[in-house]
Amino acid sequence: MRFLPRPPPILTHRNINFNLLINIFMNKKIGLFWLRDDFRISKNNGLIEATTNHDQVVVFYLYKKLTYKFQEAQKWWLSKSLIHFRKNLEKFNINIEIIETESFKIFFEKLFKKNDFSLYWNKVYEPDYSKFDEYLVKNLKNKNISYKICKGNVLNEIHEIKKNDGTPFKVFTPFWRTAERYYIEKIPSKEKLIKKCLKSKNYFQNSLNPKEILPNNNWFKNFENLWLPGEENALKELRNFIKNKITNYTNSRNFPNVVGTSKLSPFIKFGQIHVETIWNECEKIKPKNLGISKFLAEIGWREFNHALINYFPHMLKNNYSKKFDHFPWEKNSKFLTAWKKGLTGYPIVDAGMRELYSTGWMHNRVRMIVGSFLVKHLLINWKEGEKYFRNCLLDYSPASNVAGWQWVAGSGADAAPYFRIFNPILQGEKFDKEGEYVKKWVPELKDLPKKFIHKPWEFTDAKFKLGKDYPNPIVNHEAARAKALSAFKKI
């Protein structure tokens, strides 16, 4: 007996699986993931959603050349990160395409002319990005283009942490107490993983080679010997820190001659490790110790700084505290140049500035010392320091850099009072007792006795000539301190 082919079922509203149809429709489209500060496979929410919903996914990075004109050091880290992340994504049949553009808006106006894609991205917690996200969502809705915007690299969303009266925190300690409790009590979301796509695909034209992003000069060459950008290395560094250093972190983090910090900040900035991963790894430590809470509080400061710039965006370009708008800053290009080059005549300051230029990083204790010296000894506007750090730091982020500088200057939220002026001599003697840090970065002082390493002007040996072998102090500490306090009284 022959059987006739079974006729297809008649589709009615009763037997249609609308979710299935939507999934089939979505899978036929390309999933585009906009890569921003998310160079990781683990906990990359937007990329996970894209691979869950689409058989083919393309990752694209928008390179704004003008932005990186003022962030030279980060060009190196970005280039290396793109190369590394591309290799990792190849395992999932996903391509990265790098598009140079003058503005995000120009790029997306061209992209909106197509309708064969769905768009995914993670939040970046900076006011300009948030404003652009609003523009993007509005236009995607108008053009009926499906999209999903996901949580970025934070423990809590900015809007989740407020005071009982609904206003933002302006002081760190109560902020972190609230934020920490909120995160701990939160029901953890189910861990999702990136899925392997059916086959890789190119979507855009004229994709840049990551090597084209590198700085033109060879300044960054030393970075090659010091850093290995990438997700795997970030996790390796974290676990090494937890195993060998976190127990003594409370004390050792203050001494620049000791490798007592995690040095994870560049990895966090580029999203090569999620702060939730850091939290989870620290939670595994038994028994608990003060070093863990002190270390996690650094994540807290990062969250606090991001909250500040979102609630008070004026502080990104101006003083958080308006009274500092009337501060009598001085313009002195000679002093500024000496500070940048590490030729101030104050060894701990000069060591820090040379470490920054050579490595793209500076110990946090020393960041406070060199920052205080610029704004309080030299009376140079904190914006000049912020700009120079922006260009030299591998871990530069607007939130941390601006908030850090305004903390030192006294013009920020929960800032050190302006009249708290670091004495660079005493700071050196306290936190670099043997002079090991100074001798490493200011080798012209390596033969000085320990007694004089932080005040070489008192060394009278004929073999050492101050002003020739090492510069005279560009200002006198006591006179500069008195001048700074006088300036502060004017506001």
Structure description:
The chain is 45% helix and 6% strand. It has 491 residues and is mainly alpha-helical. A five-stranded parallel β-sheet has the order 3-2-1-4-5, sandwiched between helices. Strand 4 (117-122), helix 6 (127-142) and strand 5 (147-150) form a beta-alpha-beta unit. Helix 12 (290-311) packs across helix 17 and helix 15 packs across helix 17 (398-409).
Using brief descriptors, characterize the structure shown.
491 residues; mainly alpha
In short:
With 491 residues, the protein is mostly helical. Helix content is 45%, strand content 6%.
Secondary structure: elements and pairs:
Elements: H1 18-28, E1 30-35, H2 45-53, E2 57-63, H3 65-68, H4 72-90, E3 95-100, H5 104-111, E4 117-122, H6 127-142, E5 147-150, H7 172-185, H8 231-244, H9 249-252, H10 265-269, H11 275-283, H12 290-311, H13 333-341, H14 347-359, H15 364-377, H16 382-392, H17 398-409, H18 424-431, H19 436-441, H20 477-489
Parallel strand pairs: 1-2, 1-4, 2-3, 4-5
Q: Could you state the oligomeric state of the chains shown?
A: single chain
Main β sheet profile = 5 strands, parallel
| Global morphology | globular
How much helicity do the residues have? 40-55%
Total helical elements: 20
Q: What is the average of the pLDDT values? A: 93
Order of helices and strands: HEHEHHEHEHEHHHHHHHHHHHHHH
Low-confidence stretches: 1-13, 15-25
- Straight-line distance between termini: 101 Å
What is the topology, as strand order, of the major beta sheet? 3-2-1-4-5
Radius of gyration: 26 Å
Q: Strand content of the residues, in percent?
A: 5-15%
Structural class: mainly alpha
Strand tally: 5
